[in-house]
Amino acid sequence: MNPEPLSTMVQGSVFRMFHSFDVNEPEKHRFFIVLSKNPQTDPLIFLVTVTTNIESQDRRYQNEVKKPLVWIRPSEFQDFHHFSVINCRSIHSFSADDLCERMKKRGGFVMHNNLPAGKLREILNIVAHDKTIVPSVARAII
What we know:
Order of helices and strands: EEEHEEHEHH
Strand content: 25-35%
Shape: globular
Largest sheet: 6 strands, antiparallel
Number of helices: 4
CATH architecture: Roll
Structural class: alpha+beta
CATH class: Mainly Beta
């Protein structure tokens, strides 16, 4: 399967599209990072989102020694204009067809530069060692 919007995506690709994870929440432009090893051919595409709600994420994992978070400063990735965090436990999956439909609707999508290799390695390292991530999901990513 090689749907058009996915044709150039690789692990670490960053894109933005309108999306809401809750029917009671308005759709808004969200950044997504592709975690799937082969997003051009995988039937399920695994993604994480980026948030600027740093304090909420820190509070959520305040009692954990190893937080599942990767912080990114604008100086590390200029496509993110604000200090941001990625919760590596919050992995979302979409079928390739569903993701392509979402990308084509709702105002389209915008591709950005790929995530810096060091930040992608941080995310993949957390996914590989975090015992709360479903093993089959981790295998599809690592």
